[in-house]
Amino acid sequence: MRLPTQPDPLATPCHQKCFAQILARHKCTPGACRICRLLQNDADNEESLTNAAEKGFAYCLASLIDAGVAPDVADARGLSPLHHAAGNGRTACVELLLAAGADPNRANHAAGLTPLHGAALGGHTECLRLLLEKGGDPDRCDNHGLTPLTRAAGKCAECVQVLLDFGADPDADFCGWGPLHVATRSGAPKAVVGALLAAGADPNLPRADGITPLADALRRGRRSAVPLLMRAGATVVGTDRLLLLPRGAANADAWAFADAVAAAGGWAAHVRAHRRVWCSYARKCTDGKLVDDVLGLVVDFLVPPGGS
Question: Which Gene Ontology terms describe the biological processes this protein takes part in (predicted)?
Fold first, then answer.
């Protein structure tokens, strides 16, 4: 393609916009990206920069940056090119944008998300590492009170470990939910739970509603996390002991008892509603220590202080 030496009478804003979209939609060679330099720093260029970052067209992105396009320009949602690159795992584009001065801690106005939140949620470990190396804040909260670590804790062990290596708080809890709560509730890989506990996450930290990670894991059947939590010192309280039993015919009544307690909204509510039938569940339980605990709970509830 011959580059024009005089202004093109057809280079209207509409033509430029179409051309920018073509560059963004098709992976460009270094030679083709020379065309980018013909475009000046305007709204079309800014849109093209965002598209190139999102699609991972590093050659086109570099040419637009060289032509003077601001690396931190935001789209209508307040997302910068770095948000788009990090959230889509475009490592080369993240590196280019950071080198050009893009802010790794810039939050969008709609949700308060930083590029780290996007990389963590998407499981893009290398993008996350680049952002952290350039000063990304691993404990920055979005508008929901969630940190990048909390966002990553649902699925990505590698991202969790990288964030912890860069000093993320394993117990960061600004919305009633910590990373360990998210990991145990969502059935995250054991490596996620193990990494959080190894970094010092509190296995007994309650959520805003009082539920601990162990209680949530038991009640939702996320049994792979239970041994890790208990070895880390998680405390089993009340009827949650019933949920440690394997499901099966021998313990069917114990599980029915536990399910009934949960459905009633807790032990006290269940006893009030079912004082006459609670023992039919406990009697058939195969764990003698568990029966003693259940009996103790019943006595504590039914017998007033000083009574007999």
Answer: protein K6-linked ubiquitination
